[in-house]
Amino acid sequence: MEASMVEPGGHDGRKGQYSAITGIDPRAEWLLGPGFPYFQSAGPETLIPFTITAEPGVLARLLAPPPGQKGPEVLRVGRRNLDGGHAALLVRPSFFDRAARLEPGNRLDFFRVAPKRIQLSLPLPPRCLPRWEPGGPSDEIKPPDIGPPPGGWPPGTVVVGIIDDGIAFAHENFLATDGTTRIECFWQQDGDFPATPTVDFGREILKADIDALRAANTSAGIVDEDEVYRQAGLIDFGIPDHKTTAWRLGHGTHVLDRAAGGPVGPVLDQRRIICVQLPIAATAEQSGAGLEFFVERGIQYIRDRAQLLAGSGPELPIVINFSYGTTASSHDGTSALEEAIDEFVQTATPGVIRRVILPSGNSHLGRGHATLRLQGVGSRATLPLRVQPDDQTPNLVQLWMPFAGAAPPVASRLTLTVTSPDGTASLPLKEVPGAVVPLMSGAEEVGQASYSFEGPATQRGLFTIFLHPTTPPLDLPDGPIAPHGLWTLSLENTGLGPHDRLHAWIERDDQMYGYPRRGRQSYFDDPGYLRFDAQGRAVTDDAAQSPLCPVTRAGMINAMATGQESVVVGGFQRRELDCAPYSAGGPISPAKGGVLGPTLRKPDAGLVSDDSLVHAGVLAAGTRSGSTVAMGGTSVAAPRLTRLMADLIAIGGIGDRAMVAGMAVAYEAVLPPGAPALIPNRGGWGRIRVPEALPQWRRR
Amino acid sequence: VAYGSYDSPLLSDALIHHRDGVAGPWQDLTPPTQHPFEGDAGSTENLARWSPDVRGRVIDFELFSKIGFSVDAATATPRRASLWHLAVTGGSGTAAPTATYAPLARFIRPTEAIFAAQVKRLNNYADLRGDRLSEVISELPGPDAFLASVAYLHPARARWTLELLSAVFRLANFVEMRVKHALSCRRPLEYSPQLQPIIMSPAHGALPSGHATESFMAALVLWELLRPSLATGSVNLYALQLMRTAARVAINRQVAGVHTPVESAAGAMLGLTLGRYFVGRCAAVPLTYAAWEFNGENFAMTGDFLWTELFEIPSSTTTLPSQQATAYATAVTMSSGSLGDQSALLAWLWGKAAAEWV
Questions:
Q1: Chain A within 8 Å of B304 (Cβ-Cβ)?
Q2: B313 contact A CB<8A
Q3: In a 3-state reduction of DSSP, which class is residue B142?
């Protein structure tokens, strides 16, 4: 897609097409432009999901049918608040083209200029979506008829929410004493949209459905779980997507078993489960579009269903486990998803607990973070970016400017030039909101760099660099490719102070377990980065290398886990008590130029993610009843804390970050003598060691 | 070096020298009692004395000699490939036995459109390759180890059962190869260069799946062997686990990319039919059997292999599991289902195997 204007970026290249839309996602120039074909089955009919935060009046106007139409030209698929200031919407890509157009009488002028925040996400297949045409009516969504059991929920009932993938809902570890499932609701976000929908997209499976499926497929006392998932549409060999519940190890099954699984008993009977199964495409996502939209919708679904379950009785406390990680963001807690998590927790009715628990991420050694400080105006720095061959997905790098204060800077403080492996330098990109420059290799356009100012939540400038894949994706054999090799980001200081720091992060682009490998992770390949020590051991501490090296392990923490309210968990080895080598940590950046204090410490605590150095991972349920599998990563440390928090909240605990910090400090104090020292940036306030809840989880 | 082998000239030479030194002049003697016994064709007393490979050929003769085959003319619609049982009675002196061909199993080929749709579906099974690789490789020779993980099939304690199962596999193979040849269905990889199976596609026709035929036949026979030892009225757990094992083996061939679901379904139906037939042939008292027809044209384009469509396992052992009719698999109407004279040789081997489980 060609950018439409040359002004007003001056000689800094062209002005991006979509930057005319106030508050648009900084990735819009790419995702709606050169990056659009990387969406599955992308076309003019594709419905693009996005979240928007704006004045209620703006949303009301957007959601009103245009003259002569029966419905709006956006499809609303959820609301975060009842005040109407936030919405989740689907639109055709042409909507943004029209909104961005500066022409007389543009009906979307109000939308273009209104202050707002828009975050784009990746499209779902049409089979998952309501049948809808812009301007036409949309299906009525009726919430399911669910509520409390006769006599109400017993005291101590806690809703455990899980947002994940590969959740085997028919597993016996999620049954209650009465033999029925404790999974009350299950939202398959990429399920086939049904004739009588209860959710805005995908489909919902309720406890009654699960119990009926299990009963109907029981033979000789054993549930034919293959058949259950086939009938429920989770394993469909008619579609090419990865079938997470057909595999032996399901990420979400393992995580949920750790969080709320186990043999039936009175305590677990009080853990009622609400599941959100993210779209396969969102988990496999490597286009740079992100899965935040689906997570945010998932949190709201868990909130809404918990309210339905409570009925007219007392509200139920909610603990949500979200064991996913990404790497690129401002890392100051101001991303749209982090705001949504904070709001979910903070808007709970007083006295009702809501918590969200996340892993600190596994990218500690990923070489995806660089911190740069430029000495004086006119000084320069370079950052080498290694882009791997055979990468079928785009690569995304973010370069965040320091907090700008109340207003955006008037004059450009930094000039970025991107040089390809063959030495072709891009046009210089300055700090001019909306500026876009093509990235060239010889005469080929192989990517783009853009600048936007992220506000008002963040108030920081952002340089965004996108590169095309280094080998064509198989469905786009004639698409543009970027050369692999060493790219160079060259920075020239034109106005930054000596204490201003720049942070660069590379977005995650590696393979997920079980998924086909398409992406390959690029990394900052600085010669000063020390990967191995003289004995050949992996170096896990930045202190071993020169402080002049801009590329650090520090700050590789999960990009979705830097908010105020999220409780974040790092991983350590049960036997050695060492921080797991992959377990990422802070420091994070304080929001809006604040001071980095103890309450900003992330992660909050460490929990076991590996049984030992040689026994990688920890044990929990495989996808089929009766099976046990090992899985590692901070993904499995988080649900340990989720379980603990649910148990404590059930007996009156607060379960907030301060309580976790207090517990961590107490546990840290009783570690055996000779335990390795705590690494606060990665282990939080301390290592929490609790006995395995189930005997089958123990191993030597 | 074992005495009696042919690979030691030194030992043979030593035996010459030894005999010269030991035997002495020839003496007349009444020979000892006959070993083996002189017996008629139906005698079983010598069977245990033959080496296993020889015994296997005798058993094969009993089984194979009663199997017939026919195929319709190329112009027939539908065109069937038919297996027959040769029900034989009598025969003594110079009087020939009386023989009648009775149906055993029939096959109608799926259409090319069904195969093409099935291969497209098969492509989606490739997702599981990373999960099933060790099973796919380990099941290359057959399902033995996996059935042995359900029933305790150690050679030291189940030698006759293993011999019986060998006969099962040989009969399945003998029959399935003839049907595969008659139908000559192309392998999945011949429909698309993108399927790229992870094991070599064997050089024979694709339908019915040999792994499905052998696994289901062996599972059924093994369950019948175990049945007398299972508590009456208990849950049919052995039947269930054996059938699930057979299905898993068949599906793993789909994951590998060498069979489509319709081929697995055809193999499962053939295996279940042959299993019941085999049990009948091995019985000491006359039993009947049922013949089944597989109509590939009735298999849905997007159909999957679901073994529970073909075989029902009741919850209690008081009711016997049974084959189920579907759109693509139906029982053939037969006048008697009689097997003819029972084979004493087969009954002998069955008896030896059955004795290992009680």
A1: yes
A2: yes
A3: coil
* Other CB atoms within 10 Å distance of the CB of residue A141: 15
Joined together, the tokens standing for residue B321 give 């599991």
Residues in Cβ contact with A105 at an 8 Å cutoff, skipping those fewer than 6 apart: none
> How far away is chain A from the Cα of B174, in angstroms, using its nearest Cα?
32
pLDDT of residue A12: 39
The tokens describing B20, both together, are: 């010269």
> What was the pLDDT predicted at A11?
35
The sheet carrying A116-120 orders its strands as A75-79, A86-91, A48-54, A116-120
Residue B319 pLDDT: 77
Q: Give the per-residue SS3 of A97-145.
A: HHHHCCCCCCCCHHHHHCCEEEEECCCCCHHHCCCCCCCCCCCCCCCCC
| Confidence check: pLDDT of B348 > 50 | yes
Closest Cβ–Cβ partner in B124, B236, B239 for A237: B124
CB A504 within 8 A of CB A400: yes
Q: Do B127 and A246 touch (CB under 8 A)?
A: yes
Residues 6+ apart with CB under 8 A from B278: B63, B168, B171, B217, B221
Residue from the list A219, A230, A239 with its beta carbon closest to the beta carbon of B313: A219
* B308 and A CB contact within 8 Å: yes
Query: Which residues of chain B make contact with A242, given a CB cutoff of 8 A?
Result: 127
Contact A220 B239 (CB under 8 A): yes
pLDDT of residue B170: 98
CA distance B63 to B65: 6
Q: What is the pLDDT of residue A286?
A: 64
Q: What per-residue confidence (pLDDT) applies to A409?
A: 87
Question: Is the pTM here over 0.80, yes or no?
Answer: yes
- CA A518, distance to chain mean position in Å, is 19
CB neighbour class for A78 (10 Å; exposed up to 12, middle 13-18, buried from 19): buried
CA of A38 vs chain B CAs: smallest distance (Å): 21
- Cα–Cα dist A608/A576, whole Å: 10
Site of tokens 């195929």: B71
Higher pLDDT, B243 or A70: B243
Q: Given CB atoms, is B194 within the 8 Å cutoff of chain A?
A: no
Tell me the C-alpha distance between B272 and B264, whole Å.
Answer: 12
Q: Would you state the structure tokens that stand for residue A319, as one six-digit string?
A: 């603990």
Q: Report H helices in A284-409.
A: 292-310, 336-346
Predicted confidence at residue B232, as pLDDT, reads: 78
Contact (CB, 8 A) for A559 and A331: yes
pLDDT in tens, A217-243: 998 889 999 999 999 999 999 988 899
A238–B121: do the CB atoms touch at under 8 Å? yes
Paired tokens of A390 = 């055979």
Per residue in B84-130, pLDDT (tens digit) is 999 999 888 899 999 999 999 999 999 999 999 999 999 999 999 99
Query: Cα angle at A15 between A11 and A21, to 5 degrees?
Result: 155
Residue A60 CB: number of other CB atoms within 10 A?
11
Residue A634 contacts residue A567 (beta carbons within 8 Å): no
B128 interface with A at CB cutoff 8 Å: yes
The whole-number pLDDT of residue B300 equals 96
Q: Which regions of chain A are under pLDDT 70?
A: 1-15, 79-84, 285-289, 598-599, 700
Q: Which residues contact A325 (CB under 8 A, 6 or more apart)?
A: A358, A359, A360, A361, A362, A363, A508, A558, A559, A560, A561, A584, A634, A635
Task: Return the structure tokens found at A1.
Answer: 């897609």
